[in-house]
Amino acid sequence: MRQRGTGGLIQVKRKDGTLASPYWYLVYWDHGRQVRESSKTRSKMQAEVLLRKRLSERDAGQKPAVDIAKLTYENLRDALLQEYEINGCKSLVRRVDDGTRYLPSVLPLDRFFAGRKVNGITADAIRRFVLEQQKAGKANGTINRSLAAVSRMFQLAVRDGKLQRQNAPNIEFLKEAAPRKGFLELADFRRLRQELPEHLRALATLGFYTGMRKGEILKLNWGNVNLADGTLRLHAGETKNDGARTIPLTGEVLEMLRILRQQNPNSKLVFTHNGQPIRHFEKSWKSACLRAGMPGLLFHDLRRTGVRNLIRAGVPERVAMAISGHKTRTIFDRYNIVSERDLHDASRKLENYLSEREADDTTTVKLGTTTVQ
């Protein structure tokens, strides 16, 4: 007789007494619930080894393998969406038709892994997903966002005790393209601004001088702007990373905002057109870029330009990051792009330095008693 709590081995029989399966079945209790699992072996000795392993996992608080077999992709995905919802992540997008929220990076995963059991989401399956996305023309960066989502799903499953770490697949990320090098010199920006519709000129100027994100600019209220002391304050919850920050306003951007306020004294939002909030202006932007001879330029390139100009102006990187709202050096360094002009400036500085050294090194060389200039 087995001791209580040690489980047992059985063979499942039909009503006529014949074996329904040639395999031994494990039977044990876990938190008041009976677990029955096929050992997948005819050997009673091997089934005994597997039973002791399952009991050891149970005593360590690990999830029974029979429960793992029931886990589906949807179980893992819903846990990820719940985490994003709880943390108020701004990456969640609300559907227009039914109001549900989703992650754009998860949609390709939904189509590929829908209805699949978790134990079927292997490294091989993930590689097949990557190949399918590449054949569809998706960029490596876009595919990596989906890989990051599925990786987080498995992390949550392990953390919540639904899955053992060794059951999570190894996920390798793809090499992404080099950072965009879109940026504008001041003269180029002013030429582009002249091609923009009048209601977008102050908006673009703010982006160029401050490096603010487009979403932050479009949501800007006059309550955020202090024209008297020339500051713009974004409160916690109004930025992408939820951090509050203060942005100084000077020169033409401050003057344009003052004119804008005089033109719309009763408006709550800073940037409006015909009394309505500005939401989208991609068509106007692309047309202006074409007329200015800058096809393919993104509004986000103004943010890259703003960061680079702060560094060029000699602003300490810590202060520049506080103004632009970057929390990590990794992303900040991707924006702090070196241009051809920067390289030429460095070459000129080196040439001037060597010329000065050459002048200083017109020194006296003593050879015995002879002095040579």
What's the quick description here?
This protein has 373 residues and is mostly helical. Helix content is 47%, strand content 10%.
Describe this structure in words.
The chain is mostly helical and 373 residues long. It folds into 3 domains: 56 residues, no CATH class; 95 residues, Orthogonal Bundle (DNA polymerase, domain 1); 156 residues, hpI Integrase, Chain A (Orthogonal Bundle). The C terminus is likely disordered.
Provide the descriptors you would attach to this structure in a database record.
DNA polymerase, domain 1; single chain; 3 domains; disordered C terminus; 373 residues; three-stranded antiparallel β-sheet; mainly alpha
Number of strands: 12
CATH topology of the largest domain: hpI Integrase, Chain A
Oligomer: single chain
Helix tally equals: 15
Q: Give, in order, the helices and strands.
A: EEEHHHEEHHHHHHEEEHEEHHHHHEE
Per the principal axes of the C-alpha atoms, what is the gross shape? elongated
- The level 1 CATH classification of the largest domain is Mainly Alpha
Strand percentage lies at 5-15%
Q: How is the largest sheet built, in terms of strand order?
A: 1-2-3
Number of self-contained structural domains: 3
Q: Mean pLDDT, nearest integer?
A: 84
Name the CATH architecture of the largest domain: Orthogonal Bundle
Low-confidence spans: 363-373
Q: State the helical fraction.
A: 40-55%
Please describe the biggest sheet, giving its number of strands, its sense, and whether it closes into a barrel.
3 strands, antiparallel
